[in-house]
Amino acid sequence: MILSKSINHLKVIVLLRRLSFLKDQRGFTAFELIIAIQLSLVVIGLGYVSYLFSVKLVNKWQKKIVVENSLSQISTTLTKSLDQLRVIHQAGPEELSGLQLNGDTLQVNLQDHVYLNGETVGDETLLLISAEFEYLLNSNEGGKPHIKMSKLMGSNLNKIRAVKCFLTLKNSGQSCEVEILSRLIKYRYNITD
Q1: What are phi and psi of 18, to 5 degrees?
Q2: CA 46 to CA 18: how far, in whole Å?
């Protein structure tokens, strides 16, 4: 009996202590709430800044990929087209026209963009800053090296052995240079030297 009284007594003491603990705990103060909100805002802000940074970085890389693909397309298309040239009819610093091996006419125009037979080559956001064709001729004199010219007419068109194309393109402040060299394929009956 004494044992059961002391157990009941202990239960009452434990219960009173629990109630006094709950009575002393009043919740969070306004200062603690403000600190917790500020810390959570800092964490959210850092997450948002890192998200914006990654989105900006991804967009920058995507634009760079578009520019690189467009430059590759311009370079590949011009190289393939110039490699198929057999006869040149017009040779100017920004314009070239001639006949390809398959008999098709080729017209290359270097105005604001690169135009091949009237169609734009590459991305239209790439602006052509400077462009020039340079023509390499065989010299009639045996010891002289090739002669470089920017504009040819008449009988000099038959002396062209290679065409060089220099392009400087710009997109969003980034400028890129492309240089293409192509030797003309000559049949024996077209060689005049």
Answers
A1: -65, -45
A2: 42
Asked whether residue 153 is assigned to any structural domain, the reply reads yes
Residues 6+ apart with CB under 8 A from 64: 174
Classify residue 11 by burial, with Cβ atoms within 10 Å: 0-12, 13-18, 19+.
exposed
Q: Determine contact, residues 73/86, Cβ cutoff 8 Å.
A: no
Please indicate, yes or no, if residue 45 is contained in any of the structural domains: no
Q: Identify the pLDDT of residue 191.
A: 43
**3-class secondary-structure state, position 22:** helix
Please determine, for residue 112, whether its predicted confidence score (pLDDT) is greater than 60. Answer: yes
* Domain count of the fold of the chain: 1
pLDDT, residue 192, reads 47
Tell me if 169 sits within 8 A of 126, measured CB to CB: yes
Range of the domain at 117: 55-190
Q: Which residues, in sequence order, are CB contacts of 75 under 8 Å at separation 6+? A: 178, 180
User: What's the CA gap between 175 and 169, in Å, rounded?
Assistant: 6
Contact 75, 91 (CB under 8 A): no
Residue with tokens 């003491």: 13
Counting every residue written for the chain, the total comes to: 193
Contact call for residues 151 and 93 (beta carbons, < 8 A): yes
Per-residue pLDDT at 137: 81
| 189 three-class SS | helix
Q: What tokens were used for 32?
A: 């603690």
